[in-house]
């Protein structure tokens, strides 16, 4: 859409045009490093004593997997200066369209850049209507090919807990800038402690933090972690990737602590984990599956996790809930789904609607020789 705004006095004219440019260029790493070059050029042009100057300032916004570029064509010098200040203010903020888990051991911590990228949000973009080969471990943006440094793992203490940061951009976590832009909230801003956008059917999602896909804390669908005892990402399957921890009413605040059952130790080279989330019918239908290198510490059990079974939506009939080790939720995709025919507005999620209770999943282990399943919440 192209539109024009006219200012009668002085017949000053500012044209605004916007276009959908292209799918994210993977080499950008999801940060703003390329944007800086535009500002360097802009400042150079401003310093020139030209009577009429035409400037193009590019703003990068990331939503799903697309880049929107808005061109501001300025034909008046004073308007150009105001536009420059506005552009600087806008780009000084961190892009925060969605949410991911940030911690050591994550893939795509620098986007897919080979260099340190303190301001990246490539890992947060959701997965929707993709073939399995693209949504599986964020292959669509190259995150599955951007592992953490050798020897770095997300540590999972058996029978303990671990904490990650849920945020829309690395820049608002303690992984960047010594945490000076981090707040209690995933977008690095300040918000009312108990905000609530629910006003009945048809209410929009809360606009304070739209990236959380929720009306309030109670409505937050819940997030989860899954583990595979395969060190190589290529060997992970739906059957050997088992959900082991669920945290209700998340994502909400930046800091999130998950409990770990009595997991056995990982093989040499570590395990592969995934952070998981399916929003509860608030905003676009999508899912999140974020890869991690992980390692179980303080392990005392040698009882392996069982083969994972597809979860079943059972909100209307608890007898249909799947017991034991369950797969991640695969839904809203072009292929590879393991849940089907859930009537809107109902949605699957990492909660009791699909047979999960909040906390460590204690029923995910293989049975012993007598057919008794290990009580994984206790030291065996």
From TrEMBL:
<dbReference type="Pfam" id="PF22810">
    <property type="entry name" value="LPMO_AA14"/>
</dbReference>
<keyword id="KW-1015">Disulfide bond</keyword>
<keyword id="KW-0964">Secreted</keyword>
<dbReference type="GO" id="GO:0005576">
    <property type="term" value="C:extracellular region"/>
</dbReference>
<comment type="similarity">
    <text>Belongs to the polysaccharide monooxygenase AA14 family.</text>
</comment>
<keyword id="KW-0186">Copper</keyword>
<keyword id="KW-0560">Oxidoreductase</keyword>
<keyword id="KW-0479">Metal-binding</keyword>
<feature type="transmembrane region" description="Helical">
    <location>
        <begin position="36"/>
        <end position="62"/>
    </location>
</feature>
<keyword id="KW-1133">Transmembrane helix</keyword>
<keyword id="KW-0472">Membrane</keyword>
<dbReference type="GO" id="GO:0004497">
    <property type="term" value="F:monooxygenase activity"/>
</dbReference>
<keyword id="KW-0812">Transmembrane</keyword>
<keyword id="KW-0503">Monooxygenase</keyword>
<feature type="compositionally biased region" description="Polar residues">
    <location>
        <begin position="367"/>
        <end position="380"/>
    </location>
</feature>
<keyword id="KW-0732">Signal</keyword>
<feature type="region of interest" description="Disordered">
    <location>
        <begin position="360"/>
        <end position="380"/>
    </location>
</feature>
<dbReference type="InterPro" id="IPR054497">
    <property type="entry name" value="LPMO_AA14"/>
</dbReference>
<protein>
    <submittedName>
        <fullName>Uncharacterized protein</fullName>
    </submittedName>
</protein>
<dbReference type="GO" id="GO:0046872">
    <property type="term" value="F:metal ion binding"/>
</dbReference>
<keyword id="KW-0325">Glycoprotein</keyword>
């Amino acid at each position: 859409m192209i539109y024009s705004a006219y200012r009668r006095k002085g017949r000053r004219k500012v044209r605004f045009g916007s276009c959908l440019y292209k799918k994210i260029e993977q080499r950008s790493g999801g940060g703003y490093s390329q944007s800086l070059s535009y500002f360097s050029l802009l400042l150079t042009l401003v310093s020139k004593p030209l009577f009429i100057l035409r400037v193009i300032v590019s703003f990068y916004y990331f939503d799903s997997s697309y880049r929107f570029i808005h061109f501001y064509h300025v034909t008046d010098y004073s308007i150009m200066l105001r536009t420059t200040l506005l552009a600087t203010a806008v780009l000084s903020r961190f892009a925060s369209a969605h949410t991911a888990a940030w911690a050591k051991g994550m893939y795509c911590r620098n986007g897919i850049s080979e260099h340190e990228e303190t301001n990246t949000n490539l890992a947060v973009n959701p997965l929707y209507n993709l073939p399995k080969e693209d949504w599986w471990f964020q292959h669509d943006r190259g995150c599955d090919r951007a592992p953490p440094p050798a020897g770095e793992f997300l540590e999972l203490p058996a029978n303990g807990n671990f904490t990650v940061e849920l945020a829309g951009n690395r820049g608002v976590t303690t992984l960047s800038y010594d945490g000076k832009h981090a707040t209690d909230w995933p977008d690095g801003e300040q918000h009312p402690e108990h905000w609530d956008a629910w006003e009945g059917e048809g209410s929009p999602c809360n606009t304070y933090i739209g990236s959380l896909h929720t009306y309030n804390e109670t409505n937050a669908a819940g997030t989860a972690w899954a583990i595979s005892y395969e060190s190589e990402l290529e060997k992970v399957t739906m059957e050997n990737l088992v959900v082991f921890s669920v945290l209700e009413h998340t994502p909400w605040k930046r800091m999130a602590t998950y409990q770990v059952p009595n997991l056995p130790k990982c093989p040499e080279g570590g395990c592969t984990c995934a952070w998981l989330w399916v929003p509860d019918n608030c905003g676009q239908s999508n899912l999140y599956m974020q890869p991690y290198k992980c390692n179980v510490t303080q392990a005392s059990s040698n009882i392996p996790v069982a083969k994972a079974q597809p979860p079943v939506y059972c909100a209307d009939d608890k007898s249909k809930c799947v017991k034991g080790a369950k797969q991640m939720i695969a839904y809203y995709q072009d292929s590879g789904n393991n849940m089907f025919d859930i009537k809107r507005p109902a949605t699957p999620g990492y909660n009791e609607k699909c047979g999960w209770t909040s906390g460590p999943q204690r029923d995910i282990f293989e049975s012993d020789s007598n057919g008794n399943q290990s009580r994984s919440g206790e030291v065996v």
